[in-house]
C-alpha cells in the first residue's frame, strides 16, 4: 500500500505544481521575457506539424456525426435543420475536444518527453548555471505557442468537419449543399465562434502547462521519462474534459456571451 500512497501524493503535488507554473508563466508574460525564436519553433510543432491528424480525424468525425443525425432528422421531415444541428454540436464540442485530444497526444507528450529528458540529464541545471530562467526559455514559449495555435487548429478542424458533413448529407440523404450551409449559418451565432476561440486558448494552456510540469518533475532515467509522458497525456485528457464541462455549464446553461 505504501507505493500507492506515494503515487497519490505525487499526483497531488504535480497538480499544485501545474497551478504554480501557470502563475509563473503569467508573471513572466507581464514582464515581457520571451524568446521569439523558440515561440515560432513550437508554433510550427503545434500547428503545421500536427495538422494532418487533426484534419483527418475531424473529417471522419463530421461524416459519422452527420450519418447519425441526418438519418433521424430526415425521417421527421426536418431536412432543413441537418446542417444547423450538426454545426452546433460540432462547433461547440466535437471540434474543440477532438483537436485538443490529438494535440495533447502529439504535442503535449513531446513537451513532457523533451523537458523530462533535459531534467534527468541535468540540462535544466545547466541553464541555471548560464543564468537562464527555464520558465523563460522552456515553458513560456511552449505555452504561448499552444495558446496561439490551438484556436487556429480548431477553426481548421471545424471547417473540415463541416465539409465532411456536407459531403455525407448530400451523397447519402440528398441534402443540397446550399440547404446544408444555410442551416449552418442560421444556427451558428458569432458567440459560438468566440467560445470556440476561448476554448482553444484554455485547452492550449492546459496541454502545455500540464505537459511541461510533468516533464519538470521527472526523476530517474529513460523509464521514468516514458512514464511521465504517458501520465501527462492521460491527466491532460481528464483536465480537458473537466474544463469543457465547466465551460459548457457556465457558457451555455447560464450564458454570459
From TrEMBL:
Statement: the UniProt record of this protein carries the keyword Transmembrane: yes
Top-level division of the source organism's lineage: Bacteria
Transmembrane segments: 12-30, 50-67, 143-173, 193-212, 232-252
Keywords recorded for this protein, A-Z: Membrane, Transmembrane, Transmembrane helix, Transport
Major location (coarse): membrane
Keyword Transmembrane found: yes
Topology within the bilayer: Multi-pass membrane protein
Compartments where located: Membrane
Family: Belongs to the MlaE permease family.
The protein's name: MlaE family lipid ABC transporter permease subunit
Organism: Anabaena azotica FACHB-119
Classification of source organism: Bacteria, Bacillati, Cyanobacteriota, Cyanophyceae, Nostocales
Amino acid at each position: 500500500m505504501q507505493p500507492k500512497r506515494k503515487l497519490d501524493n505525487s499526483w497531488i503535488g504535480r497538480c499544485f505544481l501545474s497551478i504554480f507554473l501557470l502563475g509563473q508563466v503569467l508573471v513572466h508574460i507581464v514582464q515581457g521575457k520571451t524568446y521569439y525564436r523558440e515561440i515560432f519553433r513550437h508554433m510550427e510543432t503545434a500547428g503545421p506539424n500536427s495538422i494532418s491528424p487533426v484534419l483527418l480525424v475531424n473529417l471522419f468525425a463530421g461524416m459519422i456525426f452527420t450519418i447519425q443525425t441526418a438519418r433521424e432528422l430526415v425521417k421527421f421531415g426536418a431536412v432543413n435543420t441537418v446542417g444547423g444541428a450538426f454545426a452546433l454540436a460540432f462547433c461547440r464540442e466535437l471540434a474543440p475536444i477532438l483537436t485538443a485530444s490529438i494535440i495533447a497526444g502529439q504535442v503535449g507528450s513531446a513537451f513532457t518527453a523533451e523537458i523530462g529528458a533535459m531534467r534527468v540529464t541535468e540540462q535544466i541545471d545547466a541553464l541555471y548555471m548560464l543564468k537562464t530562467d527555464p520558465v523563460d526559455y522552456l515553458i513560456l514559449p511552449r505555452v504561448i505557442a499552444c495558446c496561439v495555435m490551438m484556436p487556429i487548429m480548431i477553426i481548421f478542424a471545424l471547417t473540415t468537419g463541416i465539409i465532411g458533413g456536407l459531403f455525407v448529407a448530400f451523397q447519402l440523404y440528398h441534402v443540397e449543399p446550399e440547404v446544408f450551409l444555410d442551416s449552418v449559418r442560421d444556427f451558428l451565432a458569432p458567440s459560438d465562434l468566440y467560445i470556440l476561440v476561448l476554448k482553444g486558448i484554455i485547452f492550449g494552456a492546459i496541454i502545455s502547462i500540464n505537459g511541461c510540469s510533468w516533464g519538470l518533475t521527472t526523476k530517474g532515467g529513460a523509464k521514468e521519462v516514458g512514464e511521465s509522458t504517458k501520465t501527462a497525456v492521460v491527466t491532460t485528457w481528464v483536465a480537458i474534459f473537466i474544463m469543457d464541462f465547466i465551460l459548457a455549464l457556465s457558457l451555455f446553461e447560464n450564458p454570459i456571451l
